[in-house]
Amino acid sequence: MKDSVKHLLLALSILVWIPVASAAGDPQAGAEKVAVCAACHGQDGNSPAPTFPKLAGLGEAYLYKQLQDIQAWSNASGADKETTGRAVPQMTGMLSGLNDQDLQDIAAFYASQTIQLTGAQEMQVRVNSGEQVDGLALGERIYRAGNPESGVPACMGCHLPNGHGNPPAGFPRLSGQYPEYIETQLRAFRAGERTNDGDSMMMRMAAKHLSDYEIEAVANYIGGLN
Questions:
Q1: Which class for 5: exposed (0-12), middle (13-18), buried (19 or more C-beta within 10 A)?
Q2: Distance (Å, whole) CA 140 – CA 217
Q3: Which homologous superfamily is 2-17+118-223 in?
Q4: CA atoms lying within 13 Å on the CB side of residue 180
């Protein structure tokens, strides 16, 4: 019971303290500014391959912050790149020449679109003991209850039981996203390779004690949420 209360308080503290960039974009204006984005992310924000994330419906505040962070990293040089924004090498130069209003408009446009669900797969994962277990069941357990033994908080504390996120707070929708992309991001947070989760390091702390098989299982489960 004490562990459950501790993890609930952690989730609530994250909801309270995460800094969120304000966004006030025009989705109609944004529709005219996404021609370059569409090549990888799809005209409506539903990318054709898991190499690139789906942007549709992720939430305006979240998308705006990611665009800001990626642009800041892309514009930085030398050693500053290691401590600035969010490193996405594939986006190098893609946001050059865009002003803040452009970023807000693009974020508003993609936030207004409807994500196409990916779906989860039946799977078995091998845990540390060598035993094969039901991956969907494990993924659901991690998403909804975390892992009290290792200190992993429940994902739904911020991203909600249905995975739709909390747009005003800047927590993105996860349901329907490609499991492969979610897995990549969790591994990046765990390794400290992605660091744009605020001073609280909420995602780095959440992913810190996730095992490889837990990441694989929860990413697959999230892909089937709706």
A1: exposed
A2: 8
A3: Cytochrome c-like domain (1.10.760.10)
A4: 9
Q: Rounded to an integer, what distance in angstroms lies between the CA atom of residue 86 and that of residue 11?
A: 23
- Give the pLDDT score at 13: 41
- What pairing do the DSSP bridges indicate for beta strands 124-126 and 132-134? antiparallel
Structure tokens at 20: 């969120």
Closest CA to 10 of 127, 157, 120: 157
Q: Mean per-residue pLDDT for 52-80?
A: 97
Q: What is the pLDDT of residue 22?
A: 54
Q: Which of 121, 151, 157, 158 is nearest to 139 (CA)?
A: 121
Q: Which CATH class is domain 34-111?
A: mainly alpha
pTM of the model: 0.88
Annotated domain spans of the chain: 2-17+118-223, 34-111
Q: Which of 140, 137, 145, 196 is nearest to 11 (CA)?
A: 145
DSSP string, the chain: -HHHHHHHHHHHHHHHH---------HHHHHTS-HHHHHHH-TTS--SSTTS---TTS-HHHHHHHHHHHHHHHH--GGGGGTSS---GGGTTTTTT--HHHHHHHHHHHHTSPPPP------EEE-TTS-EEEHHHHHHHHHHH-BTTTTBPPTHHHH-TTS--BGGGTBPP-TTS-HHHHHHHHHHHHHTS---STTTTHHHHHHTT--HHHHHHHHHHHHT--
Q: Which residue has the tokens 């993609």?
A: 110
